[in-house]
UniProtKB/TrEMBL annotation:
TM annotation in the entry: 21-39, 101-118, 124-141, 148-172, 192-214, 293-311, 323-343, 355-372, 379-399
Domain of life where this protein originates: Bacteria
Protein name per Swiss-Prot or TrEMBL: Glycosyltransferase RgtA/B/C/D-like domain-containing protein
Keywords: Membrane, Transmembrane, Transmembrane helix
Protein source organism: Acetobacter orientalis
Keyword Cytoplasm annotated: no
């Protein structure tokens, strides 16, 4: 481990606090700009579209989001509040999610730079180089998992709050036990307790556990009493907020259902996990074109040095707490390790690279462990930073020259171009309708509400063999991330025709609405408008759709039923 004398101001250049702040701000702006630039050239998916629509609703006064149903991680006081602020005071439209993602990533970069230098060592700009190389210059060339940072809500805001709390904890660890630092711990924990439990796992729990462990070993760092008090007060307030939201008729959230993956799934999960780690570090050149693999090859040697450091550190671990790290590094190590194994062994019913978003804290935390504890070779990181900056500058405008850059970046068929769908709907004078989950809200959001498409599904309940009737229709609202008012029959009463965006073939587990299942429930459509190889718009008379009572059963007596 480097000593204080090894990193002197004379060797690395002295930066006063204002210069450090300017240094951090510059590279945070660069990382946010990169995130925004590339994010604007990728299609959004329905998760992002639904949260954007919720943010619009909040910006128009529905702060507790009455009538909304969310996934277990509701992101209410994180991404939704952030986007609502941009919409309310910035007048932003569909660009709000991309700008919000850029702000979060800029914030992550800023906090990571703040944490790159441990307080027990003289500050060195050299320690910031790994953060600049791997975080401020994110790999967005043919990379899928790292593309999550260009979208919300995918826990990047939660990571930002956690890093802010770690900065406060570091200040407390050097005996700056100010009220402001403890207040910051509580403020960062409050939206996490309220909106995204994921942050409790990688931020709150590691800080408390490591504090208790250090106290048992007789080392004075962050007092467990102060931590527990700050987090405890934040938790109590969050519970009171939840009670208020519930009793005021605010949003509801689904419960979390997770399990361990089966043994048969382990090989593929290990491959995806390793692939995602390579991807986040920007060294996944496998299967990429030679030209686009250049940034990966530039980062390869620094990445191998990083891996060698971790290997030696774990192999030669010391007898005391968490392989000899300081309090913050130990918390980073524990939080990152928990996330790594949780992502590896848990099953959240997400496909392919979808699950990789949960490895983001592991990626950031382990970089910080390296910067805080290794002897950094200046030129080993400075030269790649310089070369990567040249690559970004030279390719900055390339992605805008071809429409092929608008792609399904995650490779899970959740993103799509809706322009041609909107064109067909306009040509046929269609305004309201239904679709599968991954087609529905993207049409609504991208068209800025000119066309309203609501997600529905085919329910699994058994039906009788009687002729088609009110009790036999199996179509029902897909209430995952949505507003219940969307499915009121009164919304459709003034329409002569209702459209259904359907897939000709496919798997229902992909949340696709299959054409044959719609026909089985409503009969042959009045008109079929083809949309390419596997998509069509099926048009029905409104009265025929109203005969399907299962689309409206939740409305009975004004209660939320049959969800």
């Amino acid at each position: 481990m480097a000593t204080r004398q090894e990193y002197t101001g004379e060797e690395n250049g002295y930066f006063s606090f204002p210069l450090r702040f300017l240094f951090y701000t510059l590279f945070s702006f660069i990382s946010g700009s990169i995130c925004y630039h590339y994010g604007m050239h990728f299609y959004i998916d329905s998760d992002e579209a639904n949260y954007y629509l919720a943010a619009q609703d909040m910006a128009h006064g529905n702060f507790t989001l009455k009538g909304w149903v969310f996934s277990p991680d509701n992101f209410w006081l994180i991404d939704i509040l952030g986007m609502a602020t941009l919409i309310k005071f910035g007048g932003l439209g569909i660009t709000a999610p991309h700008l919000m993602a850029a702000i979060w990533w800029a914030g992550v970069t800023f906090c990571a730079l703040c944490l790159a230098n441990p307080p027990q060592k003289t500050w060195s700009w050299v320690r910031c180089l790994p953060v600049i190389l791997f975080i401020a210059f994110p790999p967005l060339y043919e990379h899928r998992p790292s593309g999550f940072i260009t979208f919300v809500p995918y826990h990047v805001g939660t990571l930002f709050y956690g890093l802010c709390g770690l900065v406060a904890a570091q200040m407390i660890s050097i005996r700056k036990n100010s009220v402001i630092n403890y207040l910051l711990l509580g403020i960062t924990a409050l939206p996490i307790f309220t909106s995204d439990f994921f942050g409790v796992v990688f931020y709150v729990m590691p800080l408390v556990f490591v504090s208790l462990l250090f106290r048992l070993k007789g080392e004075n760092t962050v007092p467990p009493k102060g931590l527990i008090t700050a987090f405890g007060i934040a938790f109590i307030i969050s519970e009171l907020v939840k009670i208020y939201v519930h009793h005021s008729g605010g949003f509801v959230a689904h419960t979390l259902h997770s399990k361990f993956i089966s043994i048969e799934e382990m090989p593929s999960k290990i491959i995806y996990t390793m692939k995602s780690v390579f991807d986040f570090f920007g060294v996944d050149f496998f299967g990429h074109k030679v030209g686009s693999a250049i940034p990966d090859l530039i980062k390869l040697i620094p990445f191998l040095v990083f891996c060698l450091f971790l290997y030696k550190k774990i192999k030669n671990r010391k007898a005391y707490c968490l392989i000899g790290f300081d309090y913050i590094s130990s918390s980073l190590f524990l939080g990152g390790t928990i996330i790594f194994f949780a992502s590896l062994f848990s099953d959240f019913s997400l496909y392919k690279e979808d699950i990789i978003r949960y490895l983001l804290p592991f990626f950031v935390f382990y970089i910080l462990i390296y910067t805080r504890n290794a002897q950094i070779n200046k030129f080993l990181f400075l030269v790649p930073c310089f070369l990567i900056s040249i690559v970004y500058i030279s390719t900055w405008g390339t992605i805008t020259k071809t429409k092929s850059s608008f792609k399904d970046i995650f490779g899970v068929h959740h993103q799509m171009d809706t322009a041609y769908i909107e064109e067909k709907l306009k040509e046929n004078n269609l305004r309201l309708g239904y679709a599968g989950y991954w087609e529905a809200s993207v049409v609504t959001a991208n068209s800025q509400g000119r066309f309203l498409s609501r997600a529905i599904k085919v329910s699994e309940r058994e039906v009788s063999n009687s002729p088609l009737g009110h009790d036999q229709c199996q179509l029902s609202p897909y209430v995952w991330i949505s507003k219940l008012d969307w499915y009121k029959k009164s919304n459709f009463e003034n329409e002569k025709q209702i459209f259904f965006i359907t897939h000709i073939y496919g798997e229902e587990h992909d949340s696709w609405l299959l054409q044959d299942r719609v026909i089985n429930n409503l009969g042959q459509p009045d008109k079929i408008i083809p949309l390419g190889d596997n998509l069509a718009i099926d048009v029905y008379n409104t009265e025929r759709v109203f005969a399907c009572q299962s689309l409206y059963t939740w409305e009975k007596h004004g209660k939320r039923v049959d969800l």
